[in-house]
Amino acid sequence: MRLWSLHPKYLDSKGLVAVWREGLLARAVITGKTKGYKNHPQLIRFKNQKEPLLFLDTYLNYIYLEAMNRGYNFNHKKIGKLHTKKQLNVTQGQIIYEQKHLLRKLKYRDIDQYQKLKQVNLPLLNPIFKIIPGDIEPWEKLKTEK
Q: Which of 116, 93, 95 shows the shortest CA–CA distance to 11?
């Protein structure tokens, strides 16, 4: 499961579809509709909120909006109608890590998206997040470069 902090505009088609599916899986975990993934580290920042479902639905709504912008047909009825204007913190180190991680994927899957993201100094975030100083988030499972 990967719930990207990066703005969904940087994702290739496979990445956008995957984050939508994985976000819906995260939603099933938070609502108690699945037994797996209960302790998945990608869920920590949502589960730590008073209203985790509200924050996750807001996150997914931004994924949905990007999908609509690209002409995809994601089912908006799968997420809640309520959204928040509040933001979750994410560290600059986490953003840099995610950018490098996504670049490794894009290099093989979508060279055009790779070239675009490679030119970005500090990527935009999914609007549910705001950047704060700091290293990679403690919940991140680090992947080493191959």
A: 116
